[in-house]
Every structure is written in C-alpha cells, then in structure tokens.
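The instructor's notes for this session suggest beginning with a concrete chain rather than abstract definitions. Hand out the sequence below and ask the class to guess, before any prediction is shown, which regions might be ordered.
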Amino acid sequence: MAIDAIIGTRIRDRRMDQGIRQANLAKTVGISASYLNLIEHNKRRIAGKLLSDIARALSVPPEQLSQGVNTSLLDRLHSAAANLSATVELTRAEDMAVRFPGWTALIVAQSQQLSALHDRVQVLNDRMTYDPELAGSLHEVITAVTAVKSAASILVSGERIDADWQARFHRNIYDDSVRLAASSEALIRYLDTPDTTGPPQTAPVDEVETALAQVGYHIAALERSGQVNIPKLVEEMTPRSDPAADLMTRFMQTYHADAAKMPLAQFVPAARDADYDPVALSHQFLVPVDAVLRRLASLPATDGHLPMGLAVADASGAMLFRKPVGGFALPRAGAGCPLWPLFTAFGRPNQPIRAEVALPDASAQRFLCYAIATPVGAAGFDAPPVLHATMLIIPDPAQGTTESIPAGVSCRICPRTGCAARREPSAMR
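After discussion, reveal the predicted structure:
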C-alpha cells in the first residue's frame, strides 16, 4: 500500500478518535465535506498546505499523517503471522500497522515470546529424549517410588508381620523416601530454567567448550612465557557461571604448563618433522605422552596443521573434555563406543596406544587415534589409582599397515551387527 493511499485513513481515524464531525473538520480547513470524504477514503491525493491545515485542526504533526509505516515492525508482523501459520489478511497488515502501531507492537512482542517459549520447550523435549543424564535422574526417581510402594503395600496387606521385619520395612521406606527426595531435588534443579527468553542453560563443561571453540581451542595469550593473568583471561572468555570459570581456570593452568614445556616456536617444526608422532615428541621434549596429545590438539588450525580432536575420560566412561573433529562424534553424557582406544587404554595404564578406527558411515571414514591412560593425583597404599585417559583423533590418515577397528559412536545409534561390545539395541535398525 502506497503512503498516499493511507493518509486519508489516518485522517479519518484521528478525526473519529477525537469525536470531530466530518462536516466540522471540512469547514475548519476550508473545503467541502464531500471533498474531505473523498480524501478520507483515499480517493484524492493530499499534501502541502491542506495536509498541514488538517493536521493542525487535528492537533497532530503533519508527518504523523504522511510518513510510512515502520518497515521493521511490518516485517515482524508478517513473521508473526507466518510463525503461527495463521490465516490473516496479509494485504491489510500495513493498514493495521499504520492505524494501530501500539497494538501491532504488542502482537509482535507476543509472537516473539511465543517463539522463545517454543524454542525452550523444544530444548527440554530434546533433553527428555536424548539426554542420558536426565534419563538416569528419572530412573532414580521411578526406582525410589517403586521401592516405597512395594514396602508400603506389604505393610498394609493385613498379614501379620514380625516386629523385626516391620522395622526393616519402615527403615527401607525411610531410606527410599530420603533417596526419592534427593533425586527429585536434583531433577528439579536440572530442569529449572527460569529465564524463558534467554539462551538455554548448559552444563559448566559445555560453557567452557563453547568458549574454547570460539578461539579454535588455541589461546594465544597462554603461549607467552612468564606470568600470565589467567583470572583476567577467564573473565574475558566469559563462562556464565562460577563452576564454568573454575573449569576454565584449571584448563588454562594445564594449557600454560604444557606451553611452557613445549614452546610453540620449537614444538611446531618438531611436530611436523616427527609427522605428529606423540611418542617421538614425548622423548624429544621429555614430557608425558598425554601432555603431547593435549599440545597437539591446541595447535592453531590456521597454520596448516592436521585437524585433530581430543577426548579425555575417566574410568567410568564419562567425558571430561571434548574437542570435536569432523566425522567423529563425542557424546557429552553417557559413554561412547567401548572399542575406542580411549577406553582400551584403561586396561594398559601408562602404555601409549596407536590404532585406526573406522566408523560405520557411508564413506567408512578412518581415524588415527593415539591414547594413553595415566594416574591422577598422588599414589597411596590401599587406594585404587584414579585414571584419566586421553585420546588424540586425526581424521583420514594415510593408509596404514594395520587393520582398522570397526567401532561406532555409541550403541544407541550404531548400526553394526554382531558386536560383542553392544550394550543396548540400536535405534537405527
């Protein structure tokens, strides 16, 4: 709708809002009522002195009658209709925005809020469907409820029960109730997302990995020798929570220590000369193999190095750190494929492992993996060692001499058949 074609509509709306009769307005500005009627029905163009006179009579600025609708507001109004798949008079959208800009803005704001709520529901739905941590929490709640119900049903069955057994059942109900309360509180905290318009809440480790991904997992400030203001760097990379800041601090301290032992200027040519062999580099720089794996994964991608991913896990299979690499998915919650060298390393502590892994995609992509499991913390008598395993992942290696290990990502989405390591049926068959 052209601007001239809505000036008359605006004049009519302002006149009627103020309760002014058409004949009286026409008399005030010195035109006939029939001519004003044609103007108000957008059948006569109007500008110049007559427009100014009418605006003065209506006590509004002339530009309020003549200026076009806010293009951005109109676009958002169209988007609101599209998002809701609503059957509306799109050809009248500009008229609506011109005549009722306040109501239009309200419609747009409500549409944006609905869209944000829809996105949040989708996030929660994805978490309900795919998040093993959430599934585990729900399982804990259901298990505790079932246990309480089972014990209570025995007590109210009417059968005579020995006093000692009654005491045991009462104790079981109490213990299961405490467990149920704790599980429920944990589940509520996990699902509690009060900010419905902000970004989805994430775990602290996800915040750290998101911040590191933005710099390509290479922090130039930590490559400098000497003292580095790590708290300031952590603040600049802005994890959104104190736990994330703590994780980022520990990551930066390890990164800086690795960089001090393997300075970039010496490490880069050495890595290229050794064809990125971590054991050779470990001997050359007199550092542990897991430190070399971390250092290789931190090399800047802009310098033409091989793309490399990194995974760190504890003996339970939980991922402590992930640097993704194309084609090799690393699950956040739950364990990955037990055939990965990352997990094989736990059975051979302090022994470096090199193996090729083939994933079951259409291209049968291969990955060269280096892994090692090392103790964490000081050793002690009568205490089992705490092991962390680190694995470097290099896509598409040159054809090796050993046969690739047919592995997957996780059992739930692995299509391989006849796998002795399978824990659960695949959803892809």
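Then share the key points. Residues 375 and 382 are 15 Å apart (CA to CA). Residues 131-191 form one domain.
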